[in-house]
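Encode chain A's predicted structure.
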Amino acid sequence: MPAARPARPPKPAYRCSECGWETGKWVGRCGECQAWGSVAETAAPTLRAAAAPVTAPAVPIGDVAVEASAFRTSGVPELDRVLGGGLVPGAAILLAGEPGVGKSTLLLEVAAQTARYRHRTLYVTGEESASQVRLRADRTNAVEPELFLAAETDLGALLTHVEETRPTLLVIDSVQTIGASGVDGVPGGVTQVKEVAAALIRVAKTRNITTILVGHVTKDGSIAGPRVLEHLVDVVLHFEGDRNSRFRMVRAMKNRFGPVDEVGCFQLDASGIEAVADPTGLFVEQHHGRVPGTCVAVTMEGRRPLLAEVQALVTPSALDKPRRTVSGLDSSRTALVLAVLERHCGLRLHGSDVFASTVGGARLHEPASDLALAIALVSSHLGEGQARAHRRRDAGARGARRPHRARRAAPDRAQRPRPTRPRVLTRPHHRPRAGPRGTGPHRAGPHGAGPQGARDHTSARGAPALHWLSGALRCARSAGGDPWGPTAPTTR
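Encoded structure for chain A:
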């Protein structure tokens, strides 16, 4: 028998510490996130796991009980709308947003409302101290006996708090600040975030604890950390809003228990955060007259119709490359609308600066808002002309008439100038020819030979041409001839 070949050693693997990209050889630059010096060799893979005893036998799907996973309210109606009905026991929810948008304030309000319903809640903070969270709770009236608070950054200590308190709702602010002691990397790295998220989700599923994780975002607005974090959780919420505005919106990007792309509206003030059930007037400004460059559109955000106002400003540019600035709109779709207006509507916008924005910090993603953007751009580009048209239309509706000019008195026949002998004015390169019905050197007009044809050989100015034409007719009539032919029309 041939000798058995020795097992080949496993090939080394290299992984990016920023995004988790893996490759079979070392490279200086990550092929996914383009970061330099972030690719390092990982440990050799372990052997495949063998069959092990199961925790629970497989049963038909119709026999699985759903009473334990029923929705329960979070105490915030707008958040319940986004989640599809409320919080689900054992669900893992990821809430991401820019710094200062109000994530901690919203989750503290949710934790307090849950504690008011006699459900024990554990709030773990890794970015603030316990005293700082208590000050915010006093300001927002969120101090409840069933609300427990802990300031931890170690995963083992966090799991110990969960064992001791046995909460119904677990809030972690934030997942990037929690680190595992037995895992390589720093807290917030790819390996650490994956291990921490996997451990917390495993505890949430086994103990039927609703877990809310706060996530950071990058400069472009995407969730920081590995993409696998969004795959592990059940719900991904994005908290957005303008810092200069008190209005905030929670948008569902992923939801295993309800609709996707649903929107919840909130208002942030000194006393905390409040839900806004009817945000109709928050995205529209009150104008007392016609304002060029504005248009109000009805957009659908999930299952909720919203009135949103689009404002545009088109002004001549002194730069070689005109500016295109948008806020609350997609820049690529704005460029597409500008191209359509210039190509099919005849508007010359390539040499103008274009500024487009929404009112109240709203973000319009529906394609139907492109029509409102196009109308606002056209209105701003033709603003002055439209204002004149409106004033002229209003004057006509009121019955106003333009004043008539006083006619000058006709001069006496004796004072009229005597006609001179007519001259035939021709172009230097054009030879006069006779009309089809006349014998003179004038062209034939649309009604035959006559004054219409003679007008082609007159001077460019209208008054001198008509003057010598009338004189020619009087001279021909006094001589007894007709220079225009037998069918020429008579004039008075």
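The first helix runs from residue 77 to 83.
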